[in-house]
Design brief:
With 324 residues, the protein is α+β, with helices and mostly antiparallel strands. It folds into two domains: 23-160, Immunoglobulin-like, CATH 2.60.40; 168-286, Immunoglobulin-like (Sandwich). The protein is 23% helix and 46% strand. The protein has five helices and 19 strands. The chain has helices at 2-21, 24-31, 43-47, 72-78, 290-323; strands spanning 33-41, 57-68, 83-92, 97-102, 105-109, 115-125, 135-143, 149-150, 152-160, 168-171, 177-180, 186-194, 200-206, 214-216, 220-223, 233-241, 247-263, 266-270, 274-286.
Length: 324
Amino acid sequence: MKKIATTFLLIILTFSLLLCLIPTPAKAAYYDCKSIIVVDYDTKAANDPFLPVDRIKEIPITLDYYVSGYFAEEVCKAYGGIDAFIYLNIDGKPDWCTASLSPNFLKMDTIPSVLSENATLIIKISKNAHAQSIGEIKLNVTVGSVGPIKGGTFYSNISFIPGYYPLLDINTPDGTVKRIQPLDVTDFGIEIENLGNAKTIVTTSVLNIPDGWTVSVANETTLGTATIGDDPKKTILLTVRPSYEFGYHNERKVINVSLVPSLIDNPSVKGQEYFISFIVQNKGFSTPGFETVYLLAIIIGAGLIGKRHKVKTYSKHKKRGEDN
């Protein structure tokens, strides 16, 4: 019985000695232990559209690390106190943004249970980022080997959405002040350029129309965006016709115009309201128009005919009375 126990102990010692002499890769294959990293991120923060003017978007990232394998617990005990080094890199990103990770290096204890560490993906987008498009950041997370514990590289894609950036550049090449006569009609050119990052509808309205005046402008104008190669410029006309009531005019009126940009696919998403003021001086004498003269001629003509008819009728009755 003692011989059997002694033989068994010698076998165990010989096996342990041989195991110590086995190269590390062979040990790893034997133990079949490896590091596992699971990358997760805050989808709410990523999917919440943000504007280029916000400059920076931060997306929290969580990395869960553990050692996997049948002998994971034994191996981790043997190599306890030796950290696994984890490197975070960005493999790909859209051209219209910059991205970085903070921190980009982590240390984890080699244990079979899950350990979690946090990092932050920092994104900065330019005005060329097309609104509502999906941007994607590709992450590369690499962990080195620790003794027989194999390392590896893990990948994750993080999606985010640029928001709508409503911005207009408005010019009035004809100026904003004009002097006209009562029967004149004048136009003010309004040049509008979409500096935002999506196709835009500009809603235009006249805030005040002077009594007796006629003022008109296009209610809606659709502008392209340079982010996808469309023409972002258009010119609209504000047409003004002053009062032309009979008499002398010398009046100066201010006409206020409002312009509001909104996202073409969702008009409820609007930008700030823009205002332009135009000044028109209506000076001069207004004579009745052709229609008025024609109407007066008809009335006067009808009056003369009626009067003449009455005279003839009166003359006939008078002559009959004399004959009787």
